[in-house]
Amino acid sequence: MVEYHTRMERRRAAEAEKQKNETHKPAKKKKKSGGKKHWVKRTFILLLLVFLFLILAGTIFVFAVIGQAPKLNANALHNEISSVLYDQNDKKATDVDSGEHRMYTDIDNIPKTIQDAYIATEDVRFYKHIGIDPIRIMGAGVAQFTKGYKSEGASTITQQVVRNAMLTQNKTFTRKIQEMYLAIQLEKSYTKKQILEFYLNQIYLGGGPTYGVAAASERYFGKNVKNVTLDQAAMLAAMTRNPGYYDPIKHPDRAKTRRDLVLDLMVHNHAISSEEAAKAKTVSMKQMTKGHRQIKVSNRKYGAFLDFVRKELVEDKKVITEQEFNSGGLKIYTTLDPEIQNQAQDVLNNKQNFPVVQKNFNAGVSVIDTQTGAIRALGGGRNYTYLMNNNRSYKTAGSGNVGSTAKPIMDYGPAIDYLQWPTDYQVDDTPDVKYSWGKKINDFDNRFLGSMTMRRALYLSRNVPALQTFQKVDQAKGTGSIRTFAKKLGIPSETLKKLGESYSIGGGGFSSNPLEMSGAYAAFGNKGIYNQPYAVRKIVKPDGEVIQLNHTRRVAMHDYTAYMVTDMLKDVMTNPQGTGRSANIGGSNMAGKTGTHNIPDDYAKQYGISATQQRHGALASWFVGYNTRLTTAVWTGYEVKNEQKNDKDYGTFLGPTEQQYAKTIFRNIMAQFMVGAPDFTKPNSVETLGNGELAVMHSNVSNHFRSDKSDASSSESSSEQSSSSSSESSSSSEESSSSSSESSGSSESSSSSIDENTEDTGENENAENNGNNGDTENNGNNGDAGNNGNNVDTGNNEKNGDTENNGNNGDAGNNGNNVDTGTPPPTTNQ
């Protein structure tokens, strides 16, 4: 140990040691300062700038949306703005809401129990918030993340008032911003009491439609709103969420559950006591609604057309709600032609036009623009009123089988389009033509006319050539090609699901309605272009928003197919043997087709229809006519209820005279609107052959009919033609009788055989197979005259001319025993 003599030495020694140690110490690494901190700082600044930008952009957006919000409107708040329909020329046609289902009531006349029930259910903090409820908004915000976007709303009663009165029902941020802004403005301009009054008078409370608690009290309880009891008050509030689902009359169980929940909410919010709630819960739905009645809704002008507009906008396309349609202040621009609509209604409602019918006789009519598909008029039925829910213009009535109106769609159209047949292509009305499973097919007269042109087979509406044509197209191109052809003409896939040979004569499951059929036939008159029928062009909302509506438009067939089918159908109207002669309108250049649905055996047995009545009767009669301007389809028939079958004032089938009414209705409605239309223009793809026949340009098909090879057809031409005209009716009947056979009952299938396409089976579905069969085409005893010589189709018999012309037959014109007047009883026939 070193010995130091002085403190100075010791200090110097210590400093020397310290310096020595520091010299041998490894150098410390310098920390990089500022790197990470700088990155974090820059990120923070960037995020802050983005945040500020979003706030600025959001603020600008909000102010822009608010600037587009409508101004508060006193009339709208009182819910007095009805939607308005405008016609094709943009002139006002009618108001949607006629007002008798709405009863505006002062808040002082609305019981406190009703007010409390709604506040407890819809907006607990109604008297505390400023129009919007921040607490509910936060709750709804959480729900967006936990339950999905737009899953839950935060609307207060005040917000609902402005939404119902001046905005749309669409869940968009734009509408929500405007709604919140207007709600705050409403709270500044009106008292809570006034706002609650607006709300309780404008809420939608069920079909009718019914708006407001006063009208709902009259409807569901049969009493003035001032006299509503606690249980009834709770029921009104309970219905608000979904009036149809919680309807106490239609759905009492679920309505009671919901009502009792409202009573519990009232207890929770100290509006009533537990004892009062318990007592109210003991009241049954039946007891509570014992005084219910329907509030009369005035018969709106153009009811059938208005009904379809509602269906198109609210149910099909879902572009607006029921409430918006009725009282949303919408301007709905339609395709309506008021003159045609009024004429259709006048014809259907005039009893003198149907002198021999019974109470349940009805008809459906559709008139559309041939070139565009725009619906010009609809006839929902005789004395049809808005919302009757059985609009026969677009709903299938009765069996709906279309009879011989199917032949251009299922047989001759596809033959020309796919196989390029000329109009004089030779087809056979001979015994060797049968259904693919071996069952024979006849016509009403039970005769065979031999070989003939496709044109003649169509205007005589013979069943055998129609089946043969279907089979040849099927063999060459497959059933799928026929299905595709029909689908392009607007025939639904569901209808074509069971497509089989019975469809060739309008049997089986081929059911339709006037609107569908007019749409399909219009394509033949529009160079092969199909337009989906539509009634609305655009909607203008109160806030200025415009909704443009589109419809389907497509090429359905070659232009040569459309022209050649049309040219043949012109003979239906003008040829002395044509089944549609009585419906022809001079100077209209029109084409058309008749069709009837004969009486099946099981139906005849059920309703006690005799063999003679079955042979001459029909379940339905059709006519479709068109020119380059308009296309119109008419259905007529009896709508039968089992309980009415023994009532002498109710009919179960169309007699010979009644079967003529489809053509009569068509002519009476359209006579003044179709005259003067330009004739159809022949396309360059069609060439003219001798004797006025047509062929596809450059077609190699050489199977042209030659009269010297015509079987015995030319020798029997006169008498058998007349029978063949009725055959059209028989084809229809055949199908109808086969109701057991192919889902619809196509008579074509034999009782023992089943068509692979499900045309299937019925024992005598096809009259042709069984005299007892409903299809007249099979048996004279059959509904289809086609089987029985006594059953003559007026169109086919020269002597008879058009059955419609024969007063004795009324229908069959040719034979008193025959039913079809050119629209033979069979579903496919006329």
Overall mean pLDDT: 80
Percent range for helical residues? 25-40%
Distance between the termini: 138 Å
For the sheet with most strands, the description reads: 5 strands, mixed
Count of runs of 4 or more consecutive helical residues: 27
For the largest sheet, list the strands in their spatial order: 2-1-3-9-10
Count of individual beta strands: 16
Low-confidence segments, given as residue ranges, are 148-152, 709-828
What structural category do the secondary elements indicate? alpha+beta
Strand content: 5-15%
Topology:
Blueprint: H1 7-24, H2 35-67, H3 74-77, E1 84-86, E2 92-95, H4 112-122, H5 134-147, H6 157-166, H7 173-189, H8 192-202, H9 213-221, H10 230-239, H11 252-268, H12 274-281, H13 285-288, H14 303-316, H15 322-327, E3 331-334, H16 338-349, E4 361-369, E5 375-379, H17 407-419, E6 426-429, E7 450-453, H18 454-459, H19 463-477, H20 479-488, H21 493-496, H22 514-524, E8 529-531, E9 536-540, E10 546-548, E11 553-555, H23 559-574, E12 591-598, H24 601-606, H25 611-616, E13 618-626, E14 630-638, H26 661-674, E15 686-688, E16 694-696, H27 717-737
Parallel strand pairs: 1-3
Antiparallel strand pairs: 1-2, 3-9, 4-5, 4-14, 6-7, 8-11, 9-10, 12-13, 13-14, 15-16
Helix pairs in contact: 4-10, 4-11, 6-7, 6-8, 10-11, 11-12, 16-26, 17-19, 17-20, 17-23, 19-20
